[in-house]
From TrEMBL:
<keyword id="KW-0560">Oxidoreductase</keyword>
<dbReference type="InterPro" id="IPR000415">
    <property type="entry name" value="Nitroreductase-like"/>
</dbReference>
<dbReference type="Pfam" id="PF00881">
    <property type="entry name" value="Nitroreductase"/>
</dbReference>
<feature type="domain" description="Nitroreductase">
    <location>
        <begin position="83"/>
        <end position="149"/>
    </location>
</feature>
<keyword id="KW-0288">FMN</keyword>
<dbReference type="GO" id="GO:0016491">
    <property type="term" value="F:oxidoreductase activity"/>
</dbReference>
<feature type="domain" description="Nitroreductase">
    <location>
        <begin position="8"/>
        <end position="61"/>
    </location>
</feature>
<dbReference type="InterPro" id="IPR029479">
    <property type="entry name" value="Nitroreductase"/>
</dbReference>
<dbReference type="InterPro" id="IPR050627">
    <property type="entry name" value="Nitroreductase/BluB"/>
</dbReference>
<keyword id="KW-0285">Flavoprotein</keyword>
<protein>
    <submittedName>
        <fullName>Nitroreductase</fullName>
    </submittedName>
</protein>
Length: 170
């Protein structure tokens, strides 16, 4: 099995973290991976916010009902879309998805734990995060990723299913 496939299968949603700090160098490597993602027209319409202030982190579970684990993570990475930079309208969703996945996979390769918390398209979450972080109108919060050293372990899962594969037509 290739090294990349091992990392892909190793990546799991981690919701419990140790109190070990994640270095700025490591965070920068995660963001470097995010910015290497493909994007429609090579627009790269993403922006990233590193969140580590406890008073902000404490507010997030009030906005996102499944985000209680953010209080344990060393850092949070918010992936946002900059609508002023998109070339093909609406494709920013795919672009930010690719950037988010690159963060998750790079974190897994570094033995870090992450979980993808969806913000967009839930309007109440989008509004709440925009208000909390004072985001401009043209910036859309897309996903929130807690990052930390895992305090839980999950086995790699085998999800390959031949019944999901079709050739040429249904």
């Amino acid at each position: 099995m290739s090294q990349i496939l091992k990392v892909i299968k190793k990546r799991r949603s981690i919701r419990k973290y140790t109190d070990q700090e994640v270095s700025q160098k490591t965070i920068n490597q995660l963001l470097e991976a995010a910015m290497a993602a493909p994007s429609a027209g090579n627009a790269q319409p993403w922006e990233f916010i590193i969140i580590d202030q406890q008073e902000i982190i404490e507010q997030i579970p009030k906005i996102h009902p499944y985000a209680s684990m953010v209080k344990e993570a060393a850092k949070l990475l918010l992936v946002c879309a900059n609508l002023e930079e998109e070339i093909y309208q609406g494709f920013w969703v795919q672009d930010c998805s690719a950037a988010t996945q690159n963060i998750l996979l790079t974190a897994a390769a570094k033995d870090l734990g992450t979980v993808w918390l969806g913000i967009y398209p839930e309007e109440d979450r989008v509004r709440g995060v925009k208000r909390l972080l004072n985001l401009p109108e043209h910036i859309i919060p897309f996903s929130l990723i807690p990052v930390g050293y895992p305090a839980e372990s999950k086995k790699a899962s085998e999800r390959f299913r031949t019944d999901k594969i079709h050739y040429n037509n249904w």
